[in-house]
Amino acid sequence: MPVFEELVGSWNVVPRDTGGPGGWILCAKAAATAGEVLLCERALVVSSADASSENKVLFAELAELERRRALGGSVALGVHAAACCALRSLGSEAVRGAVLCQCQHAASDLPEAAAVYKQLLKSGLLPQVGSFSAAEYAKLLSVVQLNSFHFEPLEVPGAASEEQGPGKAMFQVCRLMNHSCAPNVDFQIRWGEEGVATLRLAAQRDVAAGEELNISYLSSAPGEALGEARSVRRKRLREVWGFDCACERCLAEAGEPENGSSRASTPSLSGLEW
Ligand SMILES: [Zn+2]
């Protein structure tokens, strides 16, 4: 587990270990008013074709593998790109320490992912991670899929969108946040020089001291899943993140709790975290 105190600094957030299946969560240190910025955090890893010329080559190679249908059907190009970027920028030892060791989720069975990894090694795109196993790579893909923040090409100022490709960013503190269909915080990813990304977390409404901070994993854009009916939202959350949402909004819209479930006993992102 990283030293959260160093990462959090004087910002208005505090990571808490629930000690239960929910794992680590993020809470407000002190009361906050709507609009208050609670945390700015630099990304641990960013995958983007525009981040560097090396990344451009990596994306081109992945696109070629995808064209040859070597990526398998269940994992997106952006997830592979983020996993490769993590290995390239952090190295295999740091990935084991900072990423894989914190993943309580069993590695997915992804033989296709292992095949891609071997091809990337063979092509020399990942020269420094020869001791990293294909099984670890498959697990890394699960970690990326469950914990990274997706960004759209247009969010990168000046990026040529057709070259930008899909992007993922991973954050050590913000990854702790669970989902709610009625989130109390929202985030923006901002871009600095040379592909450095910073996530800015702001209160969407007044938040009490100690209150758990929840973002929405579902997009709030018009016509997107967050605005949909309960069954649509829950289906999407189950398919992509593997849990049954039992947030206050889902419980309220169900009339009464299903099977006596409660927030605390619900599988959450933290339960599946890195
Ligand atoms: Zn919900």
TrEMBL record:
SUPFAM superfamilies (alphabetical): SET domain (SSF82199)
Domain SET: 11-218
Pfam families in the cross-refs: SET (PF00856)
Stored InterPro entries: H3K4_H4K5_MeTrfase, SET_dom, SET_dom_sf
Family annotation (PROSITE patterns): SET
Extent of the signal sequence: none
PANTHER family hit by this protein: HISTONE-LYSINE N-METHYLTRANSFERASE SMYD (PTHR12197)
Name listed for the protein in its UniProt record: SET domain-containing protein
Biological source species: Polarella glacialis (Dinoflagellate)
